[in-house]
Design a protein that fits this description.
With 356 residues, this protein is an alpha+beta fold. The chain folds into 2 domains: 255 residues, 2-Layer Sandwich (Beta Polymerase, domain 2); 60 residues, Magnesium transport protein CorA, transmembrane region (Methane Monooxygenase Hydroxylase, Chain G, domain 1), CATH 1.20.58. The protein has 7 helices and 7 strands. Strands 2-1-3-7-6-5-4 form a 7-stranded mixed sheet, with helices on both faces. It starts with 31 loop residues before the first strand and ends with a helix. The relative contact order is 0.08.
């Protein structure tokens, strides 16, 4: 017997606005802080658990990227935000991992919330929120736990490849978002392969119907979750391209427009795959219905064949004394011959009508 699903308990706690409280599922044991400070001529990296070490880089005329892994230790977020003058509502949103992707403008910085997607161990699809704070000479990124999509970007900064170290914090913001979007493309491609695999299994003979149905339901849930994750980013990038903020340099807008084209294409692919899944579900239901119809047709033909035979057997099975055919010497064999002839004639008729 299938165990009953445990009911969730829903409780609302009304806290004052700006209260820093972690809302998430990934409880890190420690909060790790990665600090990358760079310019065209220099590069410096620190890995620490002491947030005070990030305070020394403020106002040093270089770009500082501070990445915080682990949000359950809210005191670190509060200290960092207080030192750099972040609004309490920004700090509250950083600790809340259930936000829809969005962007907020402040006088001295921009605050962006987006969802990071990547495939872990070639199978597991990971969804994680990333909060980005972009100031004049700094970028903060906040994640729930270890593991992200920025390793290639870190390598480019350390080896001085590309133009990252030649430009400011606004370009670093663009490269961070671009890394997230590039992994969207990878995830979407892998998702398309999964749809094709399930589509092939739908047409395979002997496939487990229950397993296929559960796979299609899993694809439906995944595509809806991906859509909720990716779709709002289009609005964010479009907003970034149109705002006039002192942090964003004029040259960066060209890169943002190119990024907008990528996210539009990704959203179009998601909608296409969404339609494919619905079509796949309709196709699967049609195949199941056709198989059921074939079974019902065979059973109907068998029943139709036996109706006249049952009728004849029923007549001669009655217990009347005066039934002349019962006293024929070859009556039993004649009755069998008649029944066999009727059976064969009906089979020939069904074959000619292409019902068999």
């Amino acid at each position: 017997m299938k165990p009953k699903k445990k009911r969730k308990s829903y409780k609302t706690v009304n806290r004052p606005p700006g209260t820093l409280f972690y809302r998430g599922k990934k409880q890190s044991v420690v909060t790790a802080i990665d600090i990358i400070n760079y310019s065209k001529e220099s590069y410096h990296k620190i890995e620490t658990q002491n947030v005070e070490e990030a305070f020394h880089f403020k106002g040093n005329n270089q770009v500082t990227w501070i990445n915080v892994n682990g949000l359950n230790n809210t005191s670190i977020i509060e200290k960092l935000g207080t030192h750099y003058g972040l609004h309490p509502l920004t700090l509250e949103d950083i600790a809340n991992t259930n936000h829809r992707p969005k962007m907020d403008e402040f006088e001295t910085y921009l605050f962006i919330v987006l969802k990071m997607l990547y495939i872990k161990n070639d199978e597991e699809l990971v969804f994680e929120q990333v909060s980005i704070v972009v100031g004049d000479d700094y970028v903060f990124t906040f994640q729930e736990a270890e593991g992200d999509v920025f390793n290639d970007l870190r390598e480019r900064i350390s080896s001085d490849k590309g133009r990252v170290r030649s430009l400011g914090s606004d370009y670093l913001m663009y490269t961070i978002i671009d890394a997230v979007v590039d992994h969207y493309i990878t995830v979407i491609e892998a998702f398309g392969d999964k749809i094709e695999d399930v589509e092939d299994r739908v047409f395979e003979d002997g496939s487990d119907s229950n397993e296929i149905a559960s796979k299609i339901q899993e694809l439906k849930r995944e595509v809806l979750k991906i859509r909720r994750t990716v779709f709002p980013l289009r609005e964010i990038i479009n907003h970034l391209d149109k705002i006039e903020h002192p942090i964003i340099d004029e040259k960066t807008y060209n890169f943002l427009r190119d990024l907008y084209d990528h996210i539009v294409q990704i959203n179009e692919n998601i909608e296409m795959y969404r339609e494919m899944i619905w079509s796949l579900l309709d196709m699967y239901m049609s195949i199941i219905s056709n198989k059921m119809n074939e079974i019902m047709k065979v059973l109907t033909i068998i029943a139709t064949v036996f109706i006249p035979l049952t009728f004849i057997a029923g007549i001669y099975g009655m217990n009347f004394d005066y039934m002349p055919e019962l006293h024929y010497k070859y009556g039993y064999f004649i009755l069998w011959a008649v029944m066999v002839v009727i059976f064969l004639l009906m089979l020939i008729y069904f074959r000619r009508r292409k019902w068999l």
